[in-house]
Amino acid sequence: MRLPSPVRIREVGPRDGFQMEKAFIPTDLKARVIDLLSEAGLRSIEVTSFVSPKVIPQMADAAEVLGRITRRPGTICKALVPNLKGAERALDAKADVLELVIVASESYNRRNVGMSVDQSIEGCAQIAKAAGERSIPLEVVIGTSFGCPIEGPVPEAQVERIARAVAAFGISRLSLADSIGAGNPAQVARLVTRIKNVLPTMPLSLHLHNTRGLGLANALAGFQAGVDTFDAGLGGLGGCPIFPGATGNVPTEDMVNLFEEMGVSTGVNLDKVREASRLIQQFL
Ligand code: COA
Ligand code: ZN
Fold first, then answer.
1. For position 243, what pLDDT does the model report?
2. From the CB of 222, is ligand 1 less than 6 Å away?
3. Using 50, 70 and 90 to split pLDDT, how confident is the model at 242?
4. Quick one: pLDDT band at residue 5, thresholds 50, 70, 90?
5. What gap in Å lies between CA 110 and CA 48, rounded to an integer?
6. 262 C-alpha to ligand 1 centroid (Å)
7. 111/107 Cα distance (integer angstroms)
8. 46: which strand partners?
9. Over the chain, what is the mean pLDDT?
10. Angle between helices 185-198 and 156-167 (to 10 degrees)
11. Please, where are the H alpha helices in the chain?
């Protein structure tokens, strides 16, 4: 097996995991968990999202979270944004990187952000401009790249169309998301290869959920197809606001373990991640 090393694991639990929790996690606790994750050596952490507090009340303290965490040199504190308003809020709150979500399935995108896919793509151009003016990188995550709970299979051509469109705006990274954990390893390898062929210089990441227990297998398939950056969430918390049947991200602990056991370096201290998981699980 070809084993390029190192891989980069990006922590997304404080956004993707926390957003599903009903009880409001106090801002100080969020900040302590995030600080432990950066101490653990996670160099990219999705710390929050600048979405509507009416839709996702857990993320109402997005700016406070960014203000309260320890900003460690070399650790990127990223914010998910759904639209230009969210991007402007995230820029004002001094996020290091913005991540715009565009869902490949038309009905899911409308339900998630109230826009058509093409409107989200237009929004991406405006957000790229706003972020560029402040020299802040913009990444794009393409949701439901491997299947949608409303529409079923998502054509690979649709994912490619979005990828090509946003690449033209000078984004710094593209992430393919299996938002509901519908993908399988053969599919992951196929789509990764397709996107790498059309956008060979675009940094590519995978964002995988574990609904059907295939998260790690999908990560391995992506790794073998040449992906070196993977999202994961502490403790595997979370689910999907649109599809109640889905479960959380691949647990960070499992993702680190997978690669370290194969001799592929992640730079992540598992004990510290477990400490962060314990801290949040005590609250939940
Ligand atoms: N942050 C905070 N408020 C926002 C916002 C943002 N990013 N975008 C819009 N709003 C506000 C508007 O200013 C407006 O406020 P008002 O009622 O006080 O005038 C209100 O929300 C409605 O604006 P509208 O443009 O009609 O948006 P909407 O109601 O269709 O909601 C989103 C659009 C994108 C804000 C909302 O669907 C959302 O937050 N989605 C994110 C869902 C999510 O987090 N999913 C999981 C992660 S992928
Ligand atoms: Zn997710």
1. 80
2. no
3. confident
4. confident
5. 21
6. 43
7. 6
8. 78
9. 96
10. 40
11. 27-39, 62-68, 84-92, 106-113, 117-133, 156-167, 185-198, 215-224, 252-261, 270-283
User: The tokens of 60 are what?
Assistant: 């109402």
d(CA 120, CA 169): 13
- Determine the residue type at 13: G
* Of residues 101, 104, 82, the one with CA closest to residue 183: 104
Rounded to the nearest angstrom, the distance between the alpha carbon of 101 and the centre of ligand 2 is 10
Q: Would you list the DSSP string of 264-281? A: ------HHHHHHHHHHHH
**Rounded CA gap, 117 and 132, in Å?**
22
C-beta of 51 in contact with ligand 1 (< 6 A): yes
- Residues 6 or more apart from 96 whose CB is under 8 A from it? 76, 77, 78, 136, 137
Q: What are phi and psi of 212, to 5 degrees?
A: -110, 20
Neighbours of 186 (CB within 10 A): 10
Does residue 57's CB lie within 6 angstroms of at least one atom of ligand 1?
A: no
Q: How far, in Å, CA of 106 to CA of 11, rounded?
A: 27
| Pocket perturbation via mutation, ligand 1, pick of 46, 50, 52 by most ligand atoms within 8 A of CB | 52
Residue 230: phi and psi, rounded to 5, are -135, 135
Residue with tokens 């106090």: 26
